[in-house]
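Input.
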Amino acid sequence: MHTKNGHKKVNLVSLGCSKNLVDSEILLRQFQLNGLEIIDNSRKADYIVINTCGFINDAKDESISAILEAIDLKKSGKVKKVVVMGCLSERYKSELIEEIPEVDAYFGVTDYKGVLTELGLDLKKELLGERLITTPKHFAYLKISEGCDNPCSFCAIPLIRGKHQSKPIEQILSEAKYLADKGAKEIILIAQDSTYYGLDIYGSRELARLLKELTRINGIEWIRLLYTFPAKFPEEILDVIAEEEKICKYIDIPFQHISNKILKSMQRGISKRRTYELIDLIRNKIPAVAIRTTLIVGYPEESDEEFQELINFVREVKFDRLGVFTYSQEENTKAYELGDSIPQKVKDERKKEILRIQQEISHQKNLEKIGRRIKVLIDEKVEENVYLGRTQWDAPEVDNSVIVNSRNIIEPGKFYEVEIDDAFEFDLVGQLT
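Output.
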C-alpha cells in the first residue's frame, strides 16, 4: 500500500465544530497509515477532502465556497480528486450532486470507509480509535456520543447526525489514555448533548460516573465539559465537578432564550423559572464556576418585549462567557413553517446589543481578578517574552485568554501560576509569579 500511495499528497479541509474536527483527525490518521503525505496547501495536493458543516446558513456558504475553490484547482489540472463529506453532504447529497457534479464523490458524516475506498485506500478498522491530533498537543477534544434526541424546533442536527448514540465508557477511557500518551494535559468532552450520556446504552444518565473515571487517568490535569443541555439536567454531575480537582469549574450550557413563549415554541423542555433555578443551583454547588451560554436572537415572532426579557436575563445572571447566534431558518425543522419574520438587520442589531452588554459584564468580572494568582495553561508563544494561555474557565478558541509576560522561557503546554495585573474586556494580563 505504501509504495502505491507514497508520493500522493492529500489536503483535508475541516470546517465547522470541534465534533467535525475529531472526525477529520480520525480520517487523517487513516490517510497516514495508508502512506499518504498530509499537507496544508490545497494547491499542491493530489486529493482534496472537504469535511463540511451544514448547521446554519453561514456555515453552508463557507462549505460551498471551499468546494468551489477545490473544483477550480481540479479544473486547472493540479488536483486529481475532490471528495466531500460531513454534515452538508449528509443533508443535501442529491442537491449537491446536481449542483456541483464536478466533485468526485459525496459521503455522509462518518463514512470513513467510503472516503478511503474512493481514494483507493484501506480502512484500518483495528485503528479507528487513533487520531492525528491537529490541535496543539497539550489539549484534545474527546467525543463521548453522536447524534441527539432533543426535539428543538430550530435545530437540524438530529436530521444530520441521527439519534443519540453514547460511546461505551471503556471506549472513551481508552481514547482518553491514547490522548494522554500523546501528550494531552487537557481533554475537552464534546457531544451534541453531553448530559444525555449513557441513557441509551445503560438506561440511565452516566455522565457523573464517566467524569469520575476520567479523573483517574494519569497525565490528564484538566477535564472540560462542553454542550450540556438544560432540560432534565443531571444534577449529580455538579457534586463531581465541585469535588474533583481535575475537572474544570466550567459549565457550557446553551439556554438559547428565556421567554416562556419562545422556549415553548423552541421545544426546549424548560421554563424561565426552572432556568433561573438551575443557574442558582450550579452557582451554589460550584462557587468558583464559570458558566458559558449561547443565545439565539431573531427567532420567528420574537417581539421587542421578549427580546427585552432576554436582555434583562443577561444583565441579571451576568454569565461569565456568552455567545449569540442570529436565527437561521433551516428546512425540515419544526420551526421552518413559522417562517422567518424578523429582518436580518434587526437580528444583527439585537445580537450586537447583547454582545455589548456582555462585553461590559466580562470586563467587570475580569477587573475583579486583578491581584489574584491563577493557574494558567500556556497555549502558545506570540512574541519575545509574551505568551498566550487560558484559565480553567476558558475553552480554546471561544473564550478569554491570559496574556502572560515573562523574561524567563515558558513552555507552551505547561501550567504556570500567574499573577493578574491588568484586565480588558476579554483578556487578562499577568506576570509569572
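The longest helix spans residues 344-367.
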